[in-house]
Amino acid sequence: MPKKSVENGSGFRPLHDKVLVKRDTAEGKTASGIFLPERAKDAPKTGVVEAVGTGTLNHETGELIPLSLKKGDRVVFSSYSGTEVKLDGVEMLVMSESEVLAVIEG
Questions:
Q1: Is 46:101 a contact under the CB 8 Å cutoff?
Q2: Which of 98, 42, 43, 102 is nearest to 73 (CA)?
Q3: Is a pLDDT exceeding 70 seen at residue 24?
Q4: Looking at the domain assignment, is residue 92 inside a domain?
Q5: pLDDT at 80
Q6: Over the stretch 71-97, which tens digit does the pLDDT of each residue have?
Q7: Where are the strands (E) in the chain, listed by range?
Q8: In the predicted model, is pLDDT for residue 4 greater than 60?
Q9: Cβ contact 53:19 at 8 Å
């Protein structure tokens, strides 16, 4: 996955059907208490939606179809989803709403 660096993270706004997700941090040790080196950690497949685009355009009717995700939703996504970007020193993912597999409720 290519990494891109964005200088001004405060003005970042996803377009169309894209969402900005802050990935959860990787666990530093196993359930049995063994500490994992950095390269052995699996990247979490969960995170929190930080920003959403305006939606997709229905080309037949010209109607804007809003996204079903909203800022603050906890989501699950597949391993290779999205493009990594760095905003204000924090690594985030930009992905299409269709790459999100589920919303974690509760």
A1: no
A2: 102
A3: yes
A4: yes
A5: 87
A6: 999 999 998 889 999 988 888 999 999
A7: 3-6, 18-23, 46-52, 56-57, 64-65, 74-77, 83-87, 90-96, 100-104
A8: no
A9: yes
Is 17 strand, coil or helix?
coil
Pairing of strands 56-57, 90-96: unpaired
Q: Please, what's the largest Cα pairwise distance for the chain?
A: 57
Can you give the pTM of this predicted structure? 0.75
Segment 10-38 shows an average pLDDT of: 77
Q: Is residue 102 part of a domain?
A: yes
Over the Cα atoms of the chain, what is R_g? 16
Residue 101's CATH number: 2.30.33.40
3 state DSSP class of 62: coil
